[in-house]
Amino acid sequence: MSLVEELAGIVGTGHVLTAADEQQPYVTDWLGKYRGSALAVVRPGSTQEVCAVLAACDRAGAVVVPQGGHTSLSGGGTPDGSGKAVVLSLTRMNRIREIDPVGNTITVDAGCVLARVQEAARQAGRLFPLSLGAEGSCTIGGNLAANAGGVAVLRYGTMRELTLGLEVVLPDGRLWDGLKALRKDNSGYALRDLFIGSEGTLGVITGAVLKLFPEPRAKATAFVAVPTLEAALGLLSMVRERCGDRLTAFEFMTDVCLDLVMRHIADARGPFSTMPAAAVLVELSDTDGEAALGERLEGTLVDAVGAGLAQDAVVAQDGTQARAFWRLREGISEALVRAGKAAKHDISVPVAQMAAFVREAEAAVEESAPGARPVVFGHLGDGNLHYNVLRPEAASEEAFAAAVPTLTRRVHELVVRYRGSISAEHGIGQLRVGEMPGCKTPLELELMGALKTLFDPQWRFNPGKLLPPGLAVRPPLQ
Question: Which secondary-structure segment (H or E) carries 100?
Answer without folding.
Answer: strand 96-100
